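pinned: reference chain
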Amino acid sequence: MEGSRIPGFYKLPPQQRLEKVKRFASLGEEEVEAIAKHGSLTIEQADRMIENVIGTFELPLGIATNFLIDGKDYLIPMAIEEPSVVAAASNAAKMARPGGGFVTNATPPIMIGQVQLCGVDDPYAARMEILNIKDEIIAKANEQDPILVKLGGGCKGIEVRVVESKQGPMVVTHLLVDCRDAMGANAVNTMAEAVAPLIERATGGKVYLRIISNLATFRLARAKAVFKAEAIGGEAVVEGVLNAYAFAEADPFRCATHNKGIMNGVTAVVLATGNDTRAVEAGAHAYAALRGYKSLTTYEKNRDGDLVATIELPVAVGLVGGATASHPVAKACIKILGVKSAEELARVIAAVGLAQNFAALRALATEGIQRGHMELHARNIAAMAGAKGEEIDAVAEVLVRERKIRVDRAKEVLEEIRRRG
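pinned: its structure tokens
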């Protein structure tokens, strides 16, 4: 077996890289074939997107239906491996339609670029010195991306904070950059690096980090839906959802799973459109933690007894640059959505996150989360047990009826079906 130290690995073509990985991991021919197989994303395209490519990795791409957002119908592409997520989102969107569907809004696409200044004895005086050259900093930042400025974006202002740390006080300058239809990381990072010498000259300190923040508190997307009591199962269901929400607000152990359910929908759309799932995930959970980890959604009962649901979270996504502009399936997903701006995409994502959360809470408050999930999961278990074609549904039906969604039981059922057949 070869070691992991492979000089010049990055210089090799993907096929030769895969051959070395095969020897390292003792992969069989079927495993090598599975890795090397690719769909719409060619190996050449993949090799340009990231480093050390040996193949591509596929996930199911589903379509959530029934979404009415701001009076417009959407089909929602979702890339995800978890059963029941797409079905749950579609069902929730259907239940939202009698109340008018989802109503959304968003703030301008402002991202924060952080410039960390250390080594100053008088941090608050240094803060004032930085604010005194605010216009010079903004101008220098905007020199870095004249096209963005021409499109109406660019650095719009700065904030300066004193942050206490184990290394002593740090003076942190925030560049507030309107990224328009880009996610903005490259533009923001370039601007942060460009203004660092100005900050050092004004303060006499030393700049270290110059980097975008994924806690995009100025780039928020919001959605609201009114779920009519009669459309979701009546007053008891409304009360059940309210109790489930109150539990999440009161208990971080529950809230972590509550917000994970939101991100089931959010991340699936972010991934399908070629955007940065890690950035959006980090921003959402950090935003939830600003008040001591809380729900990204709220639930209330209006005077008619209907359930009113809202969501607010940072959604830093773009339509230009990165995989969104280069991955053929991501481009097709953008076309399916029909979105014309990054802001519209963010609003759609917020609506999907709200739908996903409502679906989970309703399930938890009624028949339990496992029923629908296990019905779909049973087919995977049947296939794992060796069922083929029509056998899969036959085995899955027995597993669900018995509430024994296990591979060992699936193998027994499959043997019984084959004996009878």
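why pinned: The longest helix spans residues 342-365. The mean pLDDT is 94.
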